[in-house]
Amino acid sequence: MYFMFLVVITTLIVMDYAAKRRRYNLTSNYCGPRIYPIFGTTEIFKSREVEDFLRTIGELSVKYGPMYRIWMGHELVVVVEDPAILKTLLSSPKYITKHSFYIVTANKFKRHLDGKEFDIYADVSLATLDIVCESTMGAKIGAQTSSDCGYVNAVEELTNIINKRGVNVWYWSDLIFGILAPKMKERQDHLIKILHSFTDNVIIKRRNALLRKQKPEDAPPLTEVDLDARKRAVLLDVLLQSAINGKPLTNADIREEVDTFIFGGHDTAATTVSFALYCLSRHPEVQSQAFQEICEVIGTDKNKPVTYKDLQNLKYLECIIKETLRLYPSGPVIGRQALEDSKIGEYSIPADTNIVVPIYFMLRNPSSFPDPDKFNPDRFLPPEVSTFLELGHFRFGKAFVNIFLQKH
């Protein structure tokens, strides 16, 4: 029995080395923590929550510099914080594929019994969901007026599950995840059904509205909803009327796109707006300056429509949004996957390498942003704005969740 155990372990180690040998050789000049057979970098396995994972990545970045490698089982991960290297990586078609290595953050404030503090994210999330659905899908869902919006609740709970899977390498495989955490897997599938049901409902409503627009002249008068639909050509209309190789898009194809816009659009915007309001509540002098700018550009008439030109002239408000994104990016880690072997400077990057960008730490780097933990929108006024522009091609979103929903 003992002999068989040794044979199995030895076989696994040999197979592990054979699978990794080429990538080992190509990345031999990388810094990084010690690698153990089969498991890889054991420091990562200590993480069970997003906070622990980010803390570990931060500690490794301090120890090994702006570019190093870690192994998560059989997966080679290159962590990059060097802006010059990242500019090449993120602008090259060799790395255009987004990897599923995304961690999603959500703004969670605790409601206190004294009533002085409340969870602003809940209200903002409902508002942004209404806005995104109406502006891109032409659908009025009434999320803010409904007593219970199952979609928003499902988004938050599914986000937590995805976070747990993202930092636990054993949960990456759907098969192993179902074996090790069957209840969580069952709950995940139920939440995905809720999200897909919501999306399907939006598609059906819009399809019916388009059909009513095509009624003959002797048809009954159009309703207010029909007239409103005629005024705007939204993204969903384009998808419903599109074709690939002469064939209309299937409902599954359309649902993938709708999932991307509804989930990613509303939750990312809600997170950013919530943190911006939080920062303004803690810095009344910034809030006062922003209010003064709004009064000067738009005026005090609440019934006056806000134009695109007005928004372009709200320069200080734009600085507030940028500073909010710097301190609280929607996704603290973004990722890419190398499509082919390549080389940047002295570093070789094998095909299928996972490239991880710990954007949260980059945007709090004191060498780029003096006093990095301070909320200071003025840092984005000329001439300091150049630093942000250098990093401006990063977009922090919910890409992992979008890919996740499409796969399921």
From TrEMBL:
Key words of the record: Heme, Iron, Metal-binding, Monooxygenase, Oxidoreductase, Signal
SUPFAM superfamilies (alphabetical): Cytochrome P450
UniProt signal peptide: 1-19
Xref: Gene3D superfamilies: Cytochrome P450
Cofactor: heme
Transmembrane segments annotated in the record for this chain: none
InterPro entries noted in UniProt: Cyt_P450 (IPR001128), Cyt_P450_E_grp-I (IPR002401), Cyt_P450_sf (IPR036396), Cytochrome_P450_Monoox (IPR050196)
Pfam families tied to this protein: p450
One GO molecular-function entry: heme binding
Family under the similarity heading: Belongs to the cytochrome P450 family.
Protein name: Cytochrome P450
Species for this entry: Hermetia illucens
